[in-house]
Queue: 2 jobs
Job 1
Amino acid sequence: MKAIRIHQHGDSNTLQLESLPKPEIQSDQVLVRIKAVALNHLDIWVRKGIPGIKLPMILGSDGSGILEEIGEDISTIKCGDEVMIQPLLYCGECSYCQRNQENLCTSFGLLGETCDGTNAQYIAVNEQNIIPKPGHLSFEEASAFSLVGQTAYEMLVQKAQIQKGETVMIWGASSGVGSMAVQIAKALDCHVIAISGSEEKLLKIKKLGADETIHYQNESVYEKVMDLTDGFGVDLVFEHVGQATWETSMKVLRKGGRVVTCGATTGPKAQIDLTHIFYKQLSILGSTMGSVNAMKEVTKLLKQKKIKPVIDRVFPLENIQEAHEYLEAGKQFGKVVLSVSHE
């Protein structure tokens, strides 16, 4: 089979298209014939070098395809089923898993980071990593859903516990996770203030349901938010940008507000004024991926057509280097997807 692997960390030139044996499944696994995969910033971080990554590695966390082989211990699904891949790896037995907190599992992992991922023509995964693909989605759309859907729902609902009528500010609203967060917050009847650095992207965000938009390069985010909220600030800030936005994120929160963060694309170092936190009684919430329940609940919204994956551009698998460079340049609105040919 064809697969994308890295043997060393570095720039996009480390991404190599290779010919590898098709995976052999165990009795509790399935073999998925991959039709499409989506890129995430995680792929870039793994490529550049995350401590502990074992090389060589097939990248990729998201994907969709068709079940080609079924392990003998599995009876709930069949060959030919169209599926999405859920990238979270967990033991199912530790105290966290028993409390339905699989994303805190003592053996937590992700496809494409902990083990070989989806950037290949075939992948062998456990049954727990398979979700039926909604019929109204293309394979490309389905491939762009799992990681951002699971992550955004975990942040907004499981961690921040957003309530109807609350005001939610979303940084990087044109990204994959940001565009999904806008839709989830609106589906749950929140007032959404979305932020991006392009007029074209802001128009698209409006079409996704955002109530207000802010061009962070042309406007003061703090002043605009205070104006839009009559000086009170927002109930929740959806953070995944990090160092460049953190100070503003803390300032725009109203008393009793909270910020939930899943990433730091501009850097991990942030200044925190503790007096500001306890005086305003703020909450800072960290979130990584999402639980199995988060995946189930966000998939319900997907099936009800209340949310949808947003795709910017589709590259062939063979153009992986170009796709990484495109994502890394921040040109996209939504997800960058790779189509996987079997010719």
Note: The longest strand covers residues 29-38.
Job 2
Amino acid sequence: MADIEILKKKIADSKNVMRDAFKRFGPEKVGVTWTGGKDSTLNLWILRQVCLEDNIDLPRVMTIDEGDAFPEITAFLIEISEKWNIDLEWCTNFDVLAACGSQLGEKVMVKALNERNRQELERIGSNVEEFLFEAESYQGNHLMKTVVFNQFLERYDLKAMMVALRWDEHPARSDDQYFMEKDGGPLVPAHTRVCPILHFTERDVWDTYFTFHIPYCPLYSIGYRSLGARTTSKRENVLPAWEQDIENTCERGGRRQDKEEAMERLRKLGYM
């Protein structure tokens, strides 16, 4: 049984991080990522409380359409945006989608991409003339996620982004800090990553959901524990996520493993 006082303390700690971010940068210079997954929805739920309690507007909220989304996630984002009155900005790399006709597995000819995307491929050391469109391949992950994320920062001159990372989610994130400065450079805007829920465990997340009646994507009810691209996220169990052996099995075991193994390299390029 969940300890409500412990959960309240974790929520309060997250609120303190969020308030510190607003104090450092100003709410108008802070953005928020929301994927529709359990972590980012919890992060947004806590943030809405801070904004209501402090009588300030919710910062800009963005979600990334990587071209391979679960329809259940899309529907959830739309439903909760309306319920919570969120002006959600849907961000995608239309240039890449145009080059492959929005078809997974189709070839993307690099020469058909715009200058920004060609430069981005050079930046990550990809010298191929073509690649197959997969949202979570090395090229696809960068162009469809990291580039779109950076363009969102550029578009609104944001100085900080709140992202829903947790220490126990992946070994590459075990040393993350609540505030992580990201140096700028060619094609990369300098900014600070703010991680308000780092201290939540996977069990804490679900305990918080059920204690405070937070809505969640229905895919978790049929066995998914970690949600990414539709074609590369698998469920390894038919039990609801919260009924699985969370403490002794890998949370991201159903995700594409070559990406998981390359997480540290991807993060150095700007991936969350």
Note: The beta strands are 30-33, 60-64, 88-91, 107-109, 130-132, 160-162, 179-182, 191-194.
